[in-house]
Amino acid sequence: MIYDRFQEESIDYINQGCSVIVSAPTGAGKTAIAEYVINNSIQNNLGVIYTAPIKALSNQKFRDFYQQFGDNIGILTGDVSINPQAPVLIMTTEIFRNKVLDEPESLQMYSWIIFDEVHYIDNPERGTVWEESLIFLPKHMKLLALSATIPNINELASWIESIHHKPVKTVIEEKRPVPLHFFFQSSNEIVDKIDKVRRGKFARPNKMNTLINYLRQKEGLPCIYFVFGRRRAEDLAQELQSFNFLNGKERAEITDLYNSLCERFDLKHERSAQNMYPLIQQGIAYHHAGMLPTLKEVIERLFTSRLLKVIFTTETFALGINMPSRSVCLDELRKFYGHYVRNLKTRDFYQMAGRAGRRGIDKEGFVYCRLNLNRINFDEAKRVIYGRAEQVRSQFNTSYATILNLYEKHKEELFKIYPLSLHYFQSHKNHQREALRLMEAKLNLLKEWGYIDKGALTKKGQFAKNVYGYELILAELYDQNILEQLDEFGLGIIASAAVFEPRKNQRVTSLSKTGHKVKNACEEIYELIKHREQKYKIYPFSKQPYFHLSSSMEGWLRGTNFDKILQFTDTDEGEVVRYFRMAIQILREIMDAKVCSPGLKEKIKEVVRVTNRDVIDAEKQLREA
After folding, report:
1. Residue 32, SS3?
2. pTM greater than 0.85
3. All residues at 6 or more sequence positions from 270 whose CB lies less than 8 Å from its CB, including other chains
4. Are residues 615 and 558 in the same domain?
5. Each residue of 319-330: pLDDT tens digit?
6. Exposure winner among 67, 395, 484, 487, fewest CB in 10 A?
7. If you compute the radius of gyration of the chain from its CA atoms, what whole number of angstroms results?
8. Which residues contact 403 (CB under 8 A, 6 or more apart)?
């Protein structure tokens, strides 16, 4: 294989036995470096762990690598466990972090860890997982970290070197193999330079037909059209239904392929798959997190077949999933970040824009930005597109489970861990003091509330150290013997409520007697948790349980079919699948706690067995792929 300059440089460092961090644009070919490590390790009987930020990406990597390396590949994501003793094991970063803290001895056979999308370390919700994984990385493991463009890559490498005392090499590639050419739709005109955009007060609305006709005329298909809302993706796809992008032969091919994939993934009778059918026949589709995972996979396969010409999708499609196209359109340059809508980060913009231009097929990629200067001012639009990518900043915020695991091993010495963090490395004294105060506050709360007593974890503490993210609510339910007393339905309701996060204006449907009983117990406990966290000035507060899926979960545990249980909630079907899979994962974590009684284990085993069927069974989807 002929490698590019940056790939060659990375491989040279790897051959010298160094850890490496690679920063290169989306679509530049970072995966080839990971494949080299995997191939080399297999030949030398060495183990490799490959971590990805989201399960969809873990699943895709499993499929891709399995085609190349066969039974050398396994996957472990909490709701999937296939070939878990394989020399090359793909997992989510959360699973790796848990292993590093709970059972580091299980990592003895692995010589390499590959962190895909390592810039996720500055994700506000989950970045701390990457940081903890890097802090506690076993000494015998070498590191390959892959990232989209990050300006402070050398700072990241210096931090890792400072805590592990071994060289970490950086490789930077700024050039894309397929250059990007930008176009702008504003006031319903399309121009090829941002300075040609009209900046008058009375702008005409941008029309979809104008943009799509322009794309066709310039041979800009296939196209990925990024939007920042699920309904918007569906609405725009429907709006385009009058267009037909396929000739007779292509139409027959895509119809056959869609029907056979729907047959294989058991989607023939799903309403959502039937609704998509007329769009597919025109070469159009949409793709977002609210869809059934199996239907999303069907759409991804249609896209790689090159028969789909326009796909409307949310930004998760940009995250590492290898689906390039000739053109990318961005619906706007603003999106919802956690709590409010703001202008796109330059890095996020290029994560999406970087999907334009297929290596070995296109000489250049085309990026179309739809500008509404009433929503974003001209200078800000220029900054998003032509600015420097943002630096990666630490989001360190240690969980209760992490503190319990560290306390078990290091007792009061655990505070010596904080100076090893990227947060400490990057922060001023005030921020360092506040981070340390938060750790101390969490430890004090755990001591006061009986998770730690006389320098050791109590039974409640042993339980809580297993359930990352939901420690206090579940441990209190355990401690008060509520979990023990619940039947299978109550346990299913608890698990789905613990993980569920409602979208704006969602409603809770009426609850059964069991649902009410569980909800009341949880609300009482949550008030106590909140009160204690306020007292210790701990923020953000522990996650509250929400009971929007209780009726659906009860129905599912009674054997009701999937279509029927959707009537009990206004949650999108893909989200229901995702939350049920997360509920299975949390139930397995409870079952793995050493203090979990045999009776509770048996009940949980039954809940997992009954829940993990049909469309919820993630493993079945992967095996059938």
Report:
1. helix
2. yes
3. 262, 292, 295, 563
4. yes
5. 656 678 999 999
6. 67
7. 25
8. 414, 439, 442, 443, 446
